[in-house]
Amino acid sequence: MPDLDGRPVLVTGASGGIGGEVARQLLTAGADVIAAGRSAGALAALSEGTGMRTLTFDLTSEDSVRDALADLDVYGVVNCGGNGGEIATPMETNIDVFDEVIAVNARGALLVTKYTSRSMIRLGRGGSIVNVSSQASLVGLAGHVSYGSSKAALDNITRVSALELGRYGIRVNSVNPTVVMTPMSEWYWGRDDIQGPFLHQMPLGRWATEAEIAAPIVFLLSDGASMISGVSLPIDGGYSSR
To answer: Quick one: which of 32, 33, 101, 231 has the most CB atoms within 10 Å?
Structure first.
């Protein structure tokens, strides 16, 4: 188990399934977790009895992000806040939805990186940022023009940030998960005409669990990954190797 030794780590989207599991695993690894999101009630439920700090802000507002993070000292960041958008072809897509998805998944993560990296540079202790991307940025997935585009942008934010922040000892990586079957995703991925063909193409032939996504994120935040930066790591059962 990685040892994060009391280092403060911000997790956005912590009230979600993957974000909540990341926060719990980080606590087990000894991090000082700051769980962030838009719902104070959901964050309070997550932090109850754990000592986890919470922080509420809106990823789509630079003023909100700046006010929340400008004076927050962190060592690590997990950009896990996300918007799933819609299932639509390029011919049918709602551009307003496209803009909303980009605003959260790409622009929001960039805003968090902008203000937390200033803290890391000021502290002079290096740091680690992990962006939760998707296999949808690595391969074309039908119906995912908005979501996949936002995550492809996030992967480029990862690479450029790794290039720019490396001189300060700050590492930046992405993880690119496959589907985690939750009630939110089951309406689409649980359909017989979608699930069967998709899993047939995946070498491991099953969905990922939240714990299987969180564990590599915790590793990338740890000293065990001290020479890893600028990477987009598929956690997709081999799907993107096709």
So the answer is: 33
